[in-house]
């Protein structure tokens, strides 16, 4: 009996070890295989953040690894589509004092990105030109104003999934309409296009306040997070209890926390933020962005983005947001990855007007898979692709991507969603889930 029990234990351990070894080998060596001959797999990556100047670009060390992974994707016989879900070409991650276009224009800027990241751009173009894999680009907030024409100049023939409105897009593969892929920034108060604010300064601009937030943050990074050169003036709630003023106070709180975290050595009245982009042609100070108050408990005002707290509902309508997000929630939770996760669920799975069962976002740099039930009680899956930047301040993981293997017509077939990373140039499976439509 003891011998029999020992044999069973050894067999069980052997079986478990075999399964683990098989799974590890499968994910490490062949994430782009469906086990058959059908070309049906969809690879989704985002937040590559290619910059025009590698001295401060967020993705530099990982460029070679990305190039290698793209070459693997190109030769994978089961991959049908490659989707780039936003923040591919970065107009935001630039020190505040730097002229983004260097006195030229966006076309020249995009060409400089292509030259600085030639290996990666060549790898994308190789896949596009071969024609076996459909490559689709969806805009994000860091490439919000980059036009379809300029994307096509460096990636000729790429498919672009864009809304009518500049800077937005959602993609559903032709054979898989229950899948929705977008960057996710349209639900973020600081990052969604803003075609309402600052029109008197720059008619036609859509640049949201997150652009300035990022420019200041990059300057802080370049200055190595120095002792603060100035102090955020105190603002208190307006004693009148006015709702709009309360929202502006919440907005001030977000800026106050940001400036405490991303310190700069400059005074807040220095005109250090050089724009010359999207109709903005001035140089601005931190004080131009920061809500202020002349009398304690009195009226709160702001220079740039005046009235932004009151236009969120209209802004959501213009940005095709299906389910309204309360403005106080949108402002207060703008920096939380969990807010984007919740919006994937609210905008798609709990929305009776939506039939989507799989939603993929980027934007937060926080790779994950979350399953939940939709409004009909059906299992639905949200995944976030993470990022390819060199150092991820959100979570330690970098170089991540999602692979979708859609179900076929067989009643036993399932749709699989798997999340991988390519750290140390070894593919590792981070999470996986499945469902059937």
Characterize the structure shown.
The chain has 437 residues and is of the alpha/beta class. The protein has 2 domains: 38-190 and 328-435, Metallo-dependent phosphatases (Purple Acid Phosphatase, chain A, domain 2, 4-Layer Sandwich); 209-310, no CATH class. It has helices spanning 2-29, 63-75, 106-116, 118-130, 148-154, 209-222, 243-261, 286-289, 312-318, 327-332, 337-349; strands at residues 41-45, 79-85, 134-138, 159-160, 170-171, 179-182, 273-274, 283-284, 292-293, 300-301, 358-361, 368-373, 379-384, 400-405, 415-421, 428-435. The chain has a 7-stranded mixed β-sheet, with helices on one face. Strands 5-6-11-13-12 form a 5-stranded mixed β-sheet, covered by helices on one side. The radius of gyration is 24 Å and the shape is globular.
Provide keyphrases for this structure.
437 residues, alpha/beta, Purple Acid Phosphatase, chain A, domain 2, 7-stranded mixed beta sheet, 5-stranded mixed beta sheet, 11 helices, 31% helix, globular, disordered N terminus
Query: Superfamily at the CATH H level of the largest domain?
Result: Metallo-dependent phosphatases
Biggest sheet statistics: 7 strands, mixed
Structural class comes to alpha/beta
Q: Estimate the mean pLDDT confidence.
A: 93
Q: CATH first level of the largest domain: which class?
A: Alpha Beta
By CATH, the architecture of the largest domain is named 4-Layer Sandwich
Beta-strand share of residues: 15-25%
Radius of gyration: 24 Å
- Ranges where pLDDT stays below 50 over 5 or more residues in a row are 1-28
């Amino acid at each position: 009996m003891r011998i029999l029990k020992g044999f069973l234990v050894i067999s069980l351990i052997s079986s478990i070890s075999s399964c683990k070894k098989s799974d590890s080998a499968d994910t490490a060596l062949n994430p782009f295989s469906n086990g058959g001959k059908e070309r049906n797999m969809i690879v989704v990556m985002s937040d590559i953040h290619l910059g025009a100047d590698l001295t401060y670009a967020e993705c530099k060390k990982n460029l070679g690894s990305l190039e290698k992974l793209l070459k693997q994707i190109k030769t994978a016989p089961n991959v049908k589509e490659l989707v780039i879900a936003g923040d591919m070409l970065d107009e935001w991650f630039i020190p505040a004092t730097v002229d983004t276009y260097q006195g030229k224009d966006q076309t020249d800027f995009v060409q400089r990105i292509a030259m600085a990241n030639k290996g990666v751009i060549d790898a994308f173009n190789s896949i596009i030109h071969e024609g076996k894999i459909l490559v689709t680009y969806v805009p994000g907030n860091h490439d919000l104003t980059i036009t379809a024409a300029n994307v096509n100049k460096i990636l000729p023939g790429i498919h672009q999934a864009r809304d009518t409105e500049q800077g937005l897009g959602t993609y559903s593969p032709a054979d898989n309409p229950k899948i929705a892929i977008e960057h996710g920034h349209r639900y973020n108060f600081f990052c969604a296009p803003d075609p309402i604010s600052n029109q008197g300064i720059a008619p036609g601009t859509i640049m949201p306040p997150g652009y300035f937030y990022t420019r200041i943050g990059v300057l802080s990074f370049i200055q190595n997070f120095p002792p603060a050169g100035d102090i955020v003036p105190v603002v208190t709630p307006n004693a009148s209890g006015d709702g709009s003023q309360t929202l502006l106070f919440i907005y001030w709180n977000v800026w106050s926390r940001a400036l405490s975290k991303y310190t700069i050595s400059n005074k807040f009245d220095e005109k250090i933020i050089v724009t010359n982009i999207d109709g903005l042609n001035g140089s601005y100070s931190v004080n131009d962005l920061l809500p202020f108050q002349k009398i304690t408990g009195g009226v709160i005002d702001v220079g740039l983005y005046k009235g932004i707290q009151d236009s969120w509902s209209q802004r959501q309508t213009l940005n095709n947001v299906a389910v309204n997000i309360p403005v106080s929630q949108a402002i207060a939770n703008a920096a939380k990855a969990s807010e984007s996760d919740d919006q994937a669920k609210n905008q798609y799975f709990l929305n009776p007007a939506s039939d989507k069962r799989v939603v993929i976002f980027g934007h937060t740099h926080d790779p994950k898979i979350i399953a939940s039930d939709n409004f009909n009680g059906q299992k639905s899956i949200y995944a976030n692709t993470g990022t390819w930047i060199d150092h991820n301040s959100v979570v330690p993981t970098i170089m991540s991507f999602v692979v979708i293997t859609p179900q076929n017509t067989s009643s036993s077939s399932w749709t699989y969603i798997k999340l991988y990373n390519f750290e140390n140039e070894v593919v590792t499976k981070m999470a996986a889930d499945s469902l059937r439509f």
